[in-house]
Amino acid sequence: MWKRACVLAALACVALGGPASASEGATHPPAQDWEFNGLFGTFDLASAQRGLQVYEQICHACHSLNHVAYRHLGELGFNEDEVAAIAANYQLSDGPDENGEMFDRPAEGSDFFVPFFANEEAARAGNGGAYPPDLSLIVKARSGGADYIYAFLTGFEEPPDGEELPAGRYWNEYFPGHQLAMPNILDVNTVEYTDGTEPTHAQMAWDVTNFLAWAAEPQMMERKQMGLKVVLFLLVFTALMYAVKRKVWANVHH
Ligand code: HEC
What we know:
mainly alpha, Cytochrome Bc1 Complex, Chain D, domain 2, 2 domains, two-stranded antiparallel sheet, 9 helices, 4 strands, 41% helix, 5% strand
């Protein structure tokens, strides 16, 4: 009896399209018109360059980018001097030297992005116990990809009536479970874009998502170009084989 009532109630909920309780699940991120979408899509390099600025000046304070080396930024359109200048803003521990001592030195193009926190424990301690995940592959690691990351960064809201948030927890429409330890950082912090673009919340979210999409798959453009070449080759090859077949069989009478 109760079972049937539950099933009916669940069906009614589905039929009416009523939202599940706000504390469960998460809203589906809306699809965005990314320049890298589709078969011929390419990265919007100007946006990704601005996104690097957002990452460096805002996200880096909590999130590492362990799988990206400074020299990779060459693919985003920075020349060698610019890459060296970006890297030199960071200090890392190296060594040991001839006396067996570790020493600090500025990062170079061949180094990977230097994290703000020395290790996961330090990152957790700085964030109320929550771990800010490494962002190198986050666009690939989350269902919804770039659409999700953009929706997430623009999805911080006041909690619905009746929802109590513990101290140090924030409300996000798109985050599974809605409550998380990351504040609505793009409302609090802003960057001054070197190309003069207005740094609105949505613009910074868009740019940093473009940057992270590139970081997660820097070879995407090459991959698509190669795919295109292979398809073209196969088309030409098919036409050629067809012509050969016609020629070989031309004098055979059935
Ligand atoms: C003050 C520290 C802090 C800053 C600055 C910060 N974050 Fe976070 N972020 C966190 C923490 C902590 C979490 C983990 C939250 C949790 O699991 O409760 C997180 C989680 C995330 C997630 C994962 C969400 C998921 O689905 O698991 C993404 C993506 C993210 N942050 C992106 C960014 C970006 C992009 C920026 C820069 C615009 C940024 N964060 C700036 C602390 C920060």
